[in-house]
Fold:
Amino acid sequence: MIISPKIKGFLCTTAHPKGCEMDVLQQIEHVERVKGQGLLAQGPKKVLVVGASGGYGLASRISAAFGSEAATIGVFFERPAVKKRTASAGWYKSAAFTKQAEAAGLYAKNLNGDAFSSEIKQATIDLIKQDLGQIDMLIYSLAAPARTLADGTVVKSALKPIGKSFAGATIDFNSAELRSISLPPAEPQEVADTVKVMGGEDWELWVHALLEAGVLAEGCITTNYTYLGSEATWPIYYHGTIGKAKEDLDRAARALAQPMQAVNGKAYVAVMKGLMTQAASAIPGMAVYLSLLFKIMKQKGTHEGCIEQTTRLFRDQLFSAQPLNVDQQDRIRMDELELADEIQNFVKAQWDLVTDENLATISDFAGYREAFLQMHGFAFDGVDYAAEIDQNVPMNLVNG
Ligand code: NAD
Structure:
C-alpha cells in the first residue's frame, strides 16, 4: 500500500517502514561517525533496554550496540501491522535495528509486551540466563500513559499543573495554528497516579528482580532519564504532575544505591534535553517551547537529537575516564546546552510574542513538525513515499 501520514491531534496513526528504517540507519551512522574518533573506553557489552523502541531508549540501544558492540535485549510495547493498518513506528524501528545489528554480527533480541508486568520481567530474566548469563547495563527508558498493576487495576498518568491552572498554547500540526489550552490543577489522586506510572517504582522492581535472579554482573550500572527544563516549561512539567514523578526517580536512584552495592553497581538518573519523541509530543505547551528551542539551538550549532545525547552520555559521562558531571542531587547533567543563558534568554524573550503569523519565522515550527513526521518515518529525503510498500514487516520476538 501507499502510506502517508494521518495526523490527529498530537498523534500520527500511520508509520512508514522505509522511513523508520532510514531513521535507524541515520542514528547508526552518527554513532559510527563518533566511533571513528576513537573507540569507547570500557563501554557496556551486555545491555537490557526497557522502553527500547523509541526516543531515548532506541537511541541508547543504538549507542550501546554500534558504539561498543554490545549485545542488546529490547523490551517495548509496540503493535505489528494488521490488515491495512500500519505497524507502530516503534515496531518498524525495532525491526530495522535488529536487522542492522544482526548484519553487523551483534546479538539483538526483543520482547514485546507490558514491561510493568511480572510476566515480561520473568521472560526477560529467562532470556538473559539462557543467552547472556548476566548484563552489565540496564537502561530504563519507559514512557507510558498508564500502568496495569498486579491486581489488574489500571492507573493513568495525567499531564497537569499542580496548585494552579495552566493557560498556554499548543500548535496544531495540520494547520500550523496556535491553539489556546487551559488545564485545571491536578487532584491529589492524579498526582499520586502519575507518580505510580512514571515514577521510580517499576524501575526498582526491575532492578530487584534482576538482582534476585543473579543476572546483574559485577559493576553493572542502571540509568533512568529525567527532564528538568526551565522557567518556560516548569508550570506544566517540573512543577506539574510529571515533575512529581520525576522527583520520585531521584528517590528511587537513592534507594537503589544500597541494593546495587551487592554487585558493586550504581543507579543513575540522567537529565536529558527536551526533544521531539512520542512521549514529549503529548505534553501540553511543549510544542511552542521546542519550536523556539530548536530555532535558537540550530542557529547556535548546539542542537542535538536523541542519538547525539545518548552517544555523548556514553562517551563523555558513563564510560569516560573523566569524573561524572553531576548536580547536587547526583543527577548526570546532559542538558547544559539547552539551559545555556543565550538559549533560554531567546526562548524567554520570544515566548509571549509567538503568533500564527510569525510562528514560521521566530520559531522553528517547520523543524519541529519535520521531527514529528520523521518520528513516524515520514519526511526523509531518499524515501519514495509515492511507491507501494508492504506494511507487514516481520520481527522475531522472544515472547511472540
Ligand atoms: P518514547 O515515547 O519515545 O519511548 C517510550 C518507550 O516506552 C517506547 O519504547 C515504548 O514502546 C515503551 N513503552 C511504553 N509503555 C510500555 C509498556 N507498558 N511496556 C513496555 N514498553 C513500554 O519516550 P521518550 O521521550 O524517549 O522517553 C523515555 C524517557 O526519557 C522517559 O523517562 C522520559 O521522561 C525521558 N525524557 C524524555 C525527554 C524528551 O524530551 N523526550 C527529555 C528528558 C527525559
In short: Residues 241-260 form the longest helix (20 residues). The chain has 13 helices and 13 strands.
